[in-house]
Amino acid sequence: PDISKGYLDLIQNRTKEKRYSFDHVYAPGCSNTDVYKNISPTVLGVVQGLNVTVFAYGSTGSGKTYTMVGSRNDPGLMVLSFRTIFDQIKKDDSSDTFEVSCSYLEVYNEVIYDLLEKSSGHLELREDPEHGIIVAGLRRIKV
To answer: DSSP secondary-structure letter at 5?
Structure first.
């Protein structure tokens, strides 16, 4: 808050103050691989049957799409995650079978969009008794 303002101004403007905490902060020149090092242990849980969500949050133009998709020289978190998952499946010597599927959604102005199904329109969060909180109608594709 602007401490140069009087007490009454501070109280009246308190809703404008926002505080955030971060698990990690990255320098401007870091690569997607640098970011991925912090989430890779979570992604490894997929091979043990865990559902994993990788969520990029930020304002328009902040680099969310680049962080998730990346480029040929700096692959994004989705590409790096799939590499890890398929490398782990390839190394698995058990008799387990694996099915890998994914969804790709965007939350924009509190509206959910399916990025794999452009004609889906707005989607809704619902509570499923068997699966917990889900995005109703979200397309899921086998990878």
So the answer is: S
Q: Which residues pair with 102 in a beta bridge?
A: 141
Q: Is the pLDDT of residue 143 over 90?
A: no
For residue range 53-100, list pLDDT tens digits in order.
888 888 888 888 899 999 999 999 999 999 999 999 999 888 888 888
Q: What is the pTM of this model?
A: 0.72
Does the annotation place 63 within a ligand binding site?
Answer: yes
64 annotated as belonging to a binding site for a ligand? yes
Residues 90, 33, single domain; the answer is yes
Outline where the chain has alpha helix (H). 7-12, 32-44, 64-69, 77-91
Range of the domain at 113: 99-142
Rounded to whole angstroms, the Cα distance separating 130 from 69 reads: 31
65 is in an annotated binding site: yes
Check residue 69 and give its pLDDT.
92
